[in-house]
Every structure is written in structure tokens, then in C-alpha cells.
């Protein structure tokens, strides 16, 4: 078992990468950061505007347009067709939190749209993804359209079967696609090479949310409306004019044109401009000025039909009245995050998008309310599926948590939060990850994911309260089940590592509940620091989970065994599979053979330190540093900070059942800083002594108790100060 780093008595492993003034100053000047904040970003390699944006902003304007998906417009049109023709629609989801929230988000919107829709999740004996039985049952009801959420990308045979029955399938998924894609009519998966979506790290629920957002947009006057934005500027240095045009559809730039006009030399017939604008509704920020310039260049014989964009936008955004396009660019919040020098037209385009969203929000306030409810679920899914906490995932989680606090939890979550005694005032991503998500996942792990889904979509308050109580009880049962199974399989699992070239851990046990194979694989992987496979079997079918680490891609490994599986799929570091029990020995033999070729990255025993904070700078103001980096998660861990030579002035042993934890009080000179050191009470009066000075490695945190908020440190390592 891996050693606990917290008992280390050596700070030489604490590595703080050097940063220079030349690296920090541009970030401070451009993004109004303190040197401390900028140094953390530099050490984490986050220095480009397009990355910093998602740490410094939380406005939903910065999420990506759903119509950036190459197949989104087709998906919307197919669903609207189903609505118009009264078709029966089935939403098929996965059994985990991501799948359940995906199903809830899409189901509620299709119900609002008046579509004849039903949902289905995997039954207790079903494997991963869309099943033949689900398709046959739906066909028996004369169903014609299936939409998968958080699954489907690997269901080639099942979707082929649906096609044979005359049922069309739209796949919305986020898992790694196989080499051969299913023959669905539309696939929305950001990991497809031709998806065109700018970020491939979103959850299944986020993909469903994007589809729902596109459906809502289709119910506005802006849907499928094509316009062109025209900007004409004089280049006095080169004695020419620059013409910039953007063609927009569904608020997405679909074409651009950039040309130069030299007065007296360039004929209108030499330009692509007339063809680009043909048949378009054309807007210019200041149409009168633009028309005057065009008249000077081409004379009065050429007519342009321009609409004035500024006069429309000022009715919704009065602050831009009398502003020139250059001033709009200077005021643009998005422009400062752009690579290079953003053009005036780009800033006008961004302002136009903001204008459209404000118009929609004013005309359809119910869409905004429903979006807030959806984002609470999208936030849960991002953390439940361990999505990288960067790009728009940060917007989702921040917006979801803010919505829970401001608007209160949506139906279903409200009852579950109450049952779990969640404090909304202090709610953080950590609370959701450690308390809410495991409880919601428990129902699926115990073979009844429909309980979590019904909790979210039920219109009856009493039913939701009962379902929340059931989920709470299931979660307690799940905890006992994991604990008992882990104890039972641990030793045999450890012994298996040597049989697999010290590169894999493999555990097979019939007594394991298939719903907890993923949890067990994850715990074994953490203990042994090698990729782990956990398998159980029932009714002649084996079900397994793989959790990976050290750069080894789980789905690629399983793809090499694809001929054995009934189905398989997942992410780079978390995957699932099933196969017939008759293939168990073949599977184990091939895993053992393939283990020789497994390459694992060497484990780095050093701890990267984000910043060193002198004790005099451990101030309440600098504790705000954690707010900038919340939410934390995959690829954006909690800040690891260190302070040297800080004096310990008091200690206390804590623990309700067992006195195992230490509360420490440090003196910075101006402030007394409390700190928690979990599970290290035995070190008191051994190498932790009151009155001594220490070098401390820690996370910043906040403690909420009886309605009072206070700053505290969470100690990772503590060693006697060499300067003491």
C-alpha cells in the first residue's frame, strides 16, 4: 500500500517552479491580477487569454454556442419534425449521475415542447448502453425516434437493429468513439474528429443541455436567420480601405471575408464582396458613415442596402449609444482574452450575440429559469464524471452552484439536500463531490437508477421526499457493500499485480455487486498506483470496470479485447465492459499477455507548490485566492501552498468517535490562523510541539460553523523549520 505523504519529515520534495517578472507582469497588467495570482497561473501553465477567461469570468455568455456542433441543426430539425408529426420519442440514458441528469434535462424540455416522450434507463440485468430489448419494446409501441444521452456511441449493433425496425436514432454522448461509428442519423459527441465543437471535455449532461439550448433557441425569432455584419475602415498608412464581413447563422460565424480596396484602382467587380452579401440582411455598426465611405470609393452608381445595428442595439443596451466601433472594441470584455489584436468587427459580433441573448431573455423569461435548473444538473454531472475542470466546465459548475445558492435547489435536489443536511450557505464543489453525487449514484449502483431520475422529474413533493429518503438509505447500504467487498478482495487483488508484470491489478469475485465495481477499481488503483480491472458475474454475464492512471488509456487497452465484449466503452481513465462468462478465462489470459506491453509513466514523488506565502501575507485578503481557482477538480486541483517558519501556538485533538485529528493554531504576527491536520493526532508532542516554528504545506479553506465563516488551512505536510 502506498505510504501516506503526510508523515514525511522532509520538505525537499516540495517543488516551487521559478517564475520571472517578465512572465508575471503582462498578466498583472492585462488581466488586473496581483503578483501572487499571476505567479500561480504561470506555474500552472495557464497564461493564454482563452484559458484565463474561464478562471476570471463566470458569465454564461462565455459558454460555447450549441450550434458549433456540426450536427446540431439537423438534430433540432429532426426533433421538431417529431413534434409536428406527433411521433413517439424515447430518451435512453445511462445509469450513473451523468446519465440520469442527461435524461432529466432532455426529458423535461421535450415535455415542455409537447412531444410524446418517454424515458428508459438500463434495468438491473442490462449491460452498458442502448439495449436490444429497449428497442424492441419501443418498436412494439410504434415508436419512431430514439435519442441516447450519455451513451450510444459504441452501440453499433443495437442501432443497426433499430434501423432495421424503422426507428431512427440520434446519439448524444461524450465517450471516446470507436473506430467504426454506429449508423445513427445524427451523432453529437464532442470527441468526434468532425464534431467541430471547440471543447471535447464536457459531460454527457452538458451535451444534452446543448441540445436543449438549441431547441430553445429554435423557438425564437433568431433561429436560422442569416445576417451579415459589414465593417469598412480606412488604412491611411497604406492608402486603402479594409472591408471585413462576417456571415452569421444561429449566432455562429459561418463565413468570413476580408478584402482591401485601393481607391481608383479597385473596381467593385474585382471584389468578392457583392457575391458574399448577395441576398443577405446586411448590418453595419454606423450605416450612415459606412455608406458615405462606400460612396466615396465607388461613387453614387453603386447602392448598398445597409441596416444600422447601433440603432437597434441601443434599445436593449443603452450604454453603447454614441459609441464608435473603436470604442466598442475598447470596452469589450471578450476582446482582452483574444489572441492577438481583436478586430472591431469581432467586438461588434460579440456585442450582437449579447444583444440577441438579452432580447430572448426579455421575451422568454421562462427559458432563463429553466436554464438555471438545468445548470444545477450539468454542474453535478461535470464533477460526477470527473470532467476536466477547465474551459466551459468551470462556467457550468460556477453557474450551477450559484443557482443553487441564489435560486435554491431545483425540485429533487431540494429534497435530497435536506435529507443529506447540506448547508447551502457554505455549498462548494467539494460538498457536491463528497456528499450529493455519491448518494445520487447509489441508486444506479444498486440497480435502480430510475429512483434518482424520478426524484428529479417528479411533480409531486411527497413522492420526491420519499424518493430522497430511499436514496439516502441506498447510499448507506452502498457504503457497507463497498467496505465489505474491498476488505474481501484486497489481498487477492494485490497478489494479482505480480502476475501482470507489476503493471495491472485484476480482481474477479462473484460476490461483488456489479454496481460497485467502478468504486472498488478506483480504490484499488489509488492504493496500488496501477491501472485496475474489477469483475463480477451473474446470470452467465460478467460485468467489469477499469480505472486507469499514470497516463495509460483504459479505452485503448479494452479496444484490443473488443472481440470478447458484449459491449464496452468509456473515457481515457474510466471505462466499463461486459462479456459472457464463458469468455472469462480467455479474457483473463489475454489481459495477462497484454500486460507486458503496458507502459506506465513514472510516478513523480515531488509535490508541485503553487506559491510560497510568507507568514505576514497570510491575510484574509489573500485567502480570496481560493475563490479564483474554485471550482477545483480534474486537471485543476486545489491550490498547494507553503509557508516557512510559522510559529505554532496552540493545539487541540478532535474526533467524535476517535480522537484522531489535530487542530493547530499558528501565529503570523498580526493574525491567528487555525489549521486542520486530519488523522495525525498521534504526532502531537512527538514532532509537533507548541512554541516551535514549522514549514507548512497546505490548502487554503473556509470553515462554516453556526452561520459563521472563518479562514483555515488544511495541512498536507508539516516539518520543523530549519531556521528555528
State the separation between the terminal residues, measured CA to CA. Answer: 34 Å
Number of DSSP helical runs:
23
The order of strands across the largest sheet is 3-2-4-5-6
Low-confidence stretches: 1-8
Structural class: alpha/beta
> Strand tally, please?
23
Question: In a nutshell, what does this entry contain?
Answer:
The chain is of the alpha/beta class and 724 residues long. The chain is built from 23 helices and 23 strands. The strands form five sheets. It has a five-stranded parallel sheet, with helices on both faces. It has a five-stranded mixed sheet with strand order 9-8-7-10-11. A five-stranded mixed sheet has the order 12-13-14-16-15.
Report on the structure:
- The protein is of the alpha/beta class and 724 residues long.
- Helix content is 39%, strand content 20%.
- The protein has 23 helices and 23 strands.
- A five-stranded parallel sheet has the order 3-2-4-5-6, with helices on both faces.
- The two termini are 34 Å apart.
- The model is unreliable at 1-8 (pLDDT under 50).
Structural key phrases:
724 residues; alpha/beta; five-stranded parallel sheet; five-stranded mixed sheet; 23 helices; globular
Layout of strands and helices, then pairs:
Layout: E1 14-15, H1 21-31, H2 35-43, H3 49-56, H4 72-84, E2 88-92, H5 97-112, E3 116-120, H6 132-140, E4 145-149, H7 156-164, E5 168-172, E6 186-188, H8 204-217, E7 226-235, E8 240-249, E9 252-261, H9 273-277, E10 281-284, H10 287-298, E11 306-308, H11 309-313, H12 325-331, H13 344-363, H14 365-384, H15 392-407, H16 413-419, H17 429-445, H18 449-457, H19 461-499, E12 505-508, H20 517-528, E13 532-538, E14 541-547, H21 554-559, E15 567-570, E16 574-580, H22 584-595, E17 607-608, E18 611-612, H23 625-629, E19 641-654, E20 661-667, E21 672-677, E22 693-705, E23 708-720
Amino acid at each position: 500500500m502506498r505510504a501516506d505523504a503526510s508523515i514525511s519529515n522532509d520538505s525537499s520534495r516540495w517543488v516551487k517552479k521559478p517564475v520571472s517578472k517578465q512572465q508575471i507582469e503582462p498578466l498583472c497588467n492585462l488581466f488586473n491580477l496581483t503578483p501572487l495570482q499571476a505567479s500561480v497561473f504561470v506555474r500552472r501553465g495557464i497564461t493564454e487569454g482563452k484559458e484565463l477567461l474561464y478562471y476570471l469570468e463566470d458569465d454564461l455568455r462565455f459558454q460555447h454556442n450549441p450550434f458549433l456542433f456540426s450536427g446540431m441543426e439537423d438534430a433540432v430539425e429532426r426533433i421538431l419534425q417529431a413534434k409536428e408529426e406527433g411521433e413517439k420519442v424515447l430518451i435512453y440514458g445511462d445509469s450513473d449521475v451523468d446519465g440520469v441528469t442527461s435524461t432529466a434535462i432532455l426529458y423535461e424540455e421535450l415535455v415542455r415542447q409537447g412531444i410524446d416522450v418517454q424515458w428508459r434507463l438500463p434495468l438491473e440485468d442490462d449491460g452498458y448502453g442502448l439495449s436490444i430489448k429497449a428497442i424492441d419494446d419501443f418498436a412494439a409501441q410504434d415508436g419512431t425516434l430514439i435519442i441516447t444521452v450519455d451513451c450510444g456511441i459504441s452501440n453499433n449493433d443495437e442501432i443497426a437493429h433499430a434501423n432495421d425496425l424503422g426507428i431512427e436514432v440520434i446519439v448524444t454522448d461524450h465517450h471516446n468513439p470507436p473506430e467504426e461509428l454506429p449508423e445513427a442519423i445524427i451523432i453529437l459527441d464532442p470527441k468526434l474528429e468532425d464534431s467541430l465543437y471547440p471543447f471535447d471535455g464536457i459531460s454527457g449532461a452538458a451535451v444534452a443541455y446543448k441540445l436543449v439550448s438549441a431547441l430553445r433557441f429554435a423557438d425564437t425569432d433568431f433561429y436560422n436567420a442569416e445576417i451579415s455584419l459589414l465593417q469598412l475602415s480606412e488604412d491611411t498608412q497604406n492608402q486603402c480601405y479594409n472591408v471585413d464581413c462576417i456571415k452569421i447563422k444561429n449566432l455562429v460565424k459561418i463565413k468570413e471575408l476580408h478584402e482591401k480596396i485601393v481607391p481608383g484602382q479597385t473596381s467593385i467587380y474585382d471584389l468578392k464582396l457583392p457575391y458574399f452579401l448577395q441576398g443577405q440582411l446586411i448590418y453595419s455598426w454606423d450605416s450612415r458613415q459606412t455608406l458615405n465611405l462606400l460612396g466615396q470609393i465607388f461613387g453614387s452608381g453603386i447602392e448598398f442596402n445597409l441596416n444600422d445595428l447601433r440603432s437597434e442595439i441601443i434599445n436593449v443596451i443603452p450604454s453603447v449609444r454614441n459609441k464608435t466601433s473603436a470604442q466598442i472594441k475598447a470596452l469589450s470584455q471578450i476582446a482582452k482574452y483574444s489572441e492577438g489584436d481583436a478586430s472591431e468587427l469581432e467586438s461588434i459580433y460579440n456585442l450582437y450575440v449579447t444583444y440577441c441573448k438579452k432580447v430572448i431573455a426579455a421575451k422568454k423569461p421562462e427559458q432563463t429559469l429553466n436554464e438555471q435548473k438545468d445548470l444545477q444538473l450539468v454542474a453535478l454531472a461535470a464533477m460526477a464524471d470527473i470532467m476536466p475542470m477547465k474551459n466551459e466546465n468551470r462556467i457550468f459548475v460556477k453557474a450551477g452552484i450559484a443557482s443553487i445558492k441564489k435560486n435554491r435547489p431545483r425540485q429533487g435536489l431540494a429534497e435530497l439536500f435536506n435529507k443529506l443536511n447540506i448547508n447551502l450557505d457554505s455549498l462548494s464543489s467539494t460538498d457536491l463531490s463528497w456528499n450529493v453525487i455519491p448518494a445520487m449514484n447509489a441508486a444506479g449502483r444498486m440497480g435502480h437508477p430510475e429512483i434518482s431520475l424520478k426524484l428529479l422529474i417528479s411533480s409531486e413533493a411527497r413522492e420526491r421526499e420519499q424518493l430522497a429518503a430511499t436514496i439516502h438509505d441506498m447510499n448507506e447500504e452502498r457504503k457497507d457493500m463497498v467496505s465489505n467487498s474491498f476488505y474481501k478482495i484486497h489481498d487477492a487483488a494485490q497478489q494479482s499485480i505480480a502476475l501482470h508484470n507489476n503493471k495491472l491489478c485484476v480482481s474477479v469475485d462473484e460476490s461483488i455487486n456489479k454496481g460497485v465495481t467502478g468504486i472498488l477499481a478506483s480504490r484499488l488503483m489509488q492504493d496500488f498506483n496501477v491501472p485496475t480491472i474489477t469483475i463480477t458475474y451473474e446470470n452467465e454475464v460478467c460485468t467489469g470496470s477499469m480505472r486507469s492512471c499514470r497516463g495509460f488509456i483504459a479505452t485503448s487497452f479494452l479496444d484490443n479485447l473488443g472481440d470478447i465484449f458484449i459491449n464496452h466503452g468509456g473515457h481515457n481513465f474510466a471505462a466499463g465492459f461486459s462479456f459472457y462468462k464463458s469468455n472469462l478465462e480467455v479474457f483473463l489470459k489475454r489481459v495477462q499477455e497484454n500486460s507486458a506491453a503496458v507502459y506506465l509513466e513514472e510516478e513523480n514523488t515531488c509535490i508541485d507548490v503553487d506559491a510560497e506565502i510568507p507568514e505576514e501575507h497570510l491575510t484574509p485578503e489573500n485567502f480570496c485566492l481560493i475563490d479564483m481557482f474554485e471550482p477545483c477538480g480534474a486537471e485543476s486541483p486545489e491550490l498547494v501552498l507553503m509557508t516557512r517558519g510559522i510559529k505554532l501556538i496552540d493545539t487541540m485533538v478532535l474526533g467524535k468517535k476517535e480522537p484522531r485529528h489535530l487542530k493547530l493554531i499558528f501565529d503570523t504576527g498580526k493574525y491567528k490562523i487555525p489549521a486542520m491536520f486530519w488523522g495525525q493526532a498521534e504526532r502531537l508532542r512527538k514532532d509537533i510541539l507548541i512554541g516551535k516554528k514549522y514549514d507548512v504545506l497546505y490548502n487554503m479553506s473556509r470553515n462554516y460553523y453556526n452561520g459563521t465563516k472563518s479562514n483555515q488551512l488544511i495541512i498536507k505536510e508539516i516539518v520543523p523549520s530549519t531556521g528555528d
